[in-house]
Write a structure and sequence with these properties.
The complex is a heterodimer of chains A (about 170) and B (about 325).
Chain A: H1 3-12, E1 15-16, H2 19-33, E2 41-45, E3 49-53, H3 59-68, E4 71-74, E5 76-80, E6 85-86, H4 88-93, E7 101-103, H5 106-113, E8 118-119, H6 122-129, E9 134-139, E10 144-153, E11 156-159
Parallel strand pairs in A: 7-9
Antiparallel strand pairs in A: 1-2, 2-3, 3-5, 5-6, 8-11, 9-10, 10-11
Chain B: H1 3-11, H2 19-29, H3 33-41, E1 46-50, H4 57-63, E2 69-71, E3 79-82, H5 95-98, E4 102-104, H6 107-116, E5 123-126, H7 133-141, E6 147-152, H8 155-168, E7 173-177, H9 180-194, E8 200-204, H10 218-222, H11 225-245, E9 251-256, H12 265-274, E10 277-280, E11 291-292, E12 296-297, E13 300-301, E14 310-312, H13 314-317, E15 322-329
Parallel strand pairs in B: 5-6, 5-8, 6-7, 8-9
Antiparallel strand pairs in B: 1-3, 1-4, 2-3, 9-15, 10-15, 11-14, 12-13, 14-15
Helix pairs in contact in B: 1-3, 6-7, 9-11, 11-12
Amino acid sequence: MSKQNKKQTRQNQIVVLSRAKKKQIAEQLKQYYGIILPDCVLVASGKQKIWILTAGIKSWQLRVLLNKLNVQAVGLYFVNQNEMRLSFDATQLMKSQIKNYIELNKQQTKQWFEGLAIELSEQQQKIAKKHNFVVVLCDFGNFKEYAGCGKIINNKLANFVPKERRMLKMQK
Amino acid sequence: MSSNKLSEVLSKLKYKPKQEFIARLQELLQDEIVDFFECMLKQLPTSIRVNTLKIDVNEALSIMQKWQPKQVFNSYPEALIIQKQYQPGELGNSIEHKLGYFYIQEISSMLAGIAVDAKPYDVIVDVCAAPGSKTTQIAAAMQNKGLIIANDVRNDRIKILLSNIERIGVSNCIVTKMSGIKLLEKLPKLEKTMQIKFNKILLDVPCSGEGTIRSNQYILQMWNINMIKRLAALQKKLLHAALLNASSGTEIVYSTCTLTPEENEEVIQYALDNFDVKLVKPKLPSELKLSSGITEWKNKVFSSEMRNAVRLWPHHNNTEGFFIAKLVKL
């Protein structure tokens, strides 16, 4: 097997997290974002990515499926394990629980969806600096929505909006 | 009915349909064939499905007022028709789409998802799942609770499936890449080992796509009877594997976006002839004009149960064409 293939295989490996590891992640999510994990199984796959499966099955049942089927993906990408950064979609799905967030104005929202780092107001910086990662609540004019996480780097909010969710030119 | 009128309509199509195709349709539709081909010339209305995993239908209606959305079914408020003329790519590149608030899905395609009648805590296998319109629809109906195994055989199609699952926020789905038949063959062992029951199976099988001519007239150019025979054989194999391996009580929704009886009623008749199954009427929105499955085709007589199968003709509801049959293994 070539080096590249080995790397690919390692990245694609899906590992069901132990109860202890899941507990650790659940505690961190509660501490950082105020989120309580629903009934789920967590798996690790790809570059430090943790995926959530809310299928109502137990870890051992998932292991059976992983053994018997050619599984490509399990559940939804939820959080980056290294940085405890919530994924774009996780912030939306858990919106009723999120406590740690900053609100961007319309101009900042536009830049956020263009993939740019955001200049923050003093007030926003104050909130963001309390945390490693902060959830972003965007203002689209006629509605507001959570849209991933950011992190203060050099006094700007670094952008983690996935490329396929960015907009080249926002209409609003 | 004048053949002049039919010739006139046919001459307006981008690709001229083969004579055999016209003759077969005439046999199915008789006088309605002109209406059918006239409908092929009309622009297909754009429909979307609100993703209730991320947004409430009323909130979506209010946010998307700019497109003048109109609800089409009382029993399925998620289905919306976009009434306003919009620029190409406007919907797909909109912020609402990027946020996963809706899925662009043709009304007829939504019907297969509705027919599955998914509920939270179901255990469902979507055998030919890509690009994921019905998988994401089923997940929304299940409120992300219960298991979906979404399978496809092709890598490129799985990539699209994964991308849609992520955008819609589906967290109760396991995506597999294998032949549908092999997957179905594994179900009994999985049920035993995992101590679960796969209670619903969606077989939205590969088909000749006659129902999608409105959005892709090239289908007319591609159409040939050998392709239909080849696909019908594959469809029978898939349904055979589903019925052989499903446990008693499992509901199987068989659907195609084609109108040819060989890929629809003949496949269902094969199931009725060879398995202990019941064909039941799927619960579909009452606003639709639905036709029953046919009971005769080319000297073949089908079971009277076939009336429980559903044909959706494009010109009856200004949609694409579709076929749905719901079987229950006894």
